[in-house]
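Figure 6 in text form: structure in, sequence out.
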């Protein structure tokens, strides 16, 4: 066990160490960057799943919004689950604004 986990006095504090990752997701209008935060909890609330990963973007916005996430007993497992969910749905966010135009023709 790592020393930082001993600093938690009460499990209700939900002390967690944060791990950060970044990945690019391609979509119809280009690419969007997704940042994934994995929380490593000092004590698990449910079973042995001590790692929770969540992306900072929503997908599938036009049908039913979904924010990719994943739980696991390992950091790699939670990150893998979150990435799997990130790849499963399309990014349907705001389109890129077009450049200047004259009479509907881009300059």
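Output sequence:
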């Amino acid at each position: 066990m790592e020393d930082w986990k001993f600093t938690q006095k009460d499990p209700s504090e939900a002390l967690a160490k944060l791990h950060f990752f970044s990945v690019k997701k391609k979509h119809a209008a280009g690419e969007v960057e997704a940042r994934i935060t994995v929380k490593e909890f000092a004590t698990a609330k449910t079973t042995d799943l001590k790692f929770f990963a969540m992306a900072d973007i929503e997908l599938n916005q036009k049908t039913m919004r979904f924010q990719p996430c994943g739980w696991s007993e390992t950091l790699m497992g939670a990150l893998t689950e979150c990435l799997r969910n990130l790849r499963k749905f399309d990014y349907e966010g705001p389109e890129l604004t077009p450049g200047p135009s004259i009479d509907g023709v881009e300059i």
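Caption detail: The first strand starts at residue 16 and ends at 27.
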